[in-house]
Amino acid sequence: MAKKQVAAIVKIQIPAGQASPAPPVGTALGPHGVAIMDFCKDYNAKTEDKRGQIVPVEITVYEDRSFSFVLKTPPTPFLIRQAAGLDKAANEPGREVAGSITDAQVAEIAEIKMPDLNAIDMEGAKLQVAGTARSMGITVEG
After folding, report:
1. Helix, strand, or coil (residue 31)
2. In this structure, what DSSP letter does residue 46 have?
3. Are 4 and 63 in contact (CB under 8 A)?
4. Of 111, 115, 121, 109, residue with least CA distance to 77
5. CA angle 44, 118, 32 (to 5 degrees)
6. Could you identify which of 45, 72, 84, 100 might form a hypothetical disulfide with 56, taking C-beta atoms 3.0 to 4.6 angstroms apart as the criterion?
7. Is 67 exposed, middle or buried (0-12, 13-18, 19+ CB in 10 A)?
8. HEC letters along 32-45
9. Long-range contact set of residues 51-54: C-beta below 8 Å, sequence gap at least 24
10. What is the pLDDT of residue 40?
């Protein structure tokens, strides 16, 4: 059996369990001729248990207009804001401190993000998460 030819790879971030044909899903998949409702139903079924989180998805669209998708881990800034209990980060990072998270929370976020990070070990992943927090105006205590 011959492999399917890939027509496009689309990456979007959608709230878990809340995909609908409206933007950004419709505008991202529409030009490729994908059955948008089929994608929405599949995505919502697979992410129902993660409601309240933003789950990035990488959709591979094939020449015959079929698709497959891979769920990624939530974005690091989203997880950091959730751990710090903030709605948004600092307006002026470096000058303003929006909040703080503990070293244990950084380790927990790094563990969640490890499959999607390009870190060799857990220490490298923790440093990446701490750097993201610092760039958001959130201090790491501990």
Report:
1. helix
2. H
3. yes
4. 109
5. 40
6. 72
7. buried
8. HCCCHHHHHHHHHH
9. 51/15, 51/16, 51/17, 51/18, 52/15, 52/16, 53/15, 53/16, 53/78, 54/13, 54/14, 54/15, 54/16, 54/78
10. 87
Q: Token digits for 118?
A: 């390009």
CB 107 within 8 A of CB 119: no
- Using H for helix, E for strand and C for coil, what is the string for 106-135? HHHHHHHHHHHCCCCCHHHHHHHHHHHHHH
pLDDT digits (tens, 9 = 90+) for 89-129: 778 887 888 888 899 999 999 998 888 888 889 898 899 89
**Do residues 98 and 90 make contact, with C-beta atoms less than 8 angstroms apart?**
yes
Residue 70 has pLDDT above 70, yes or no: yes
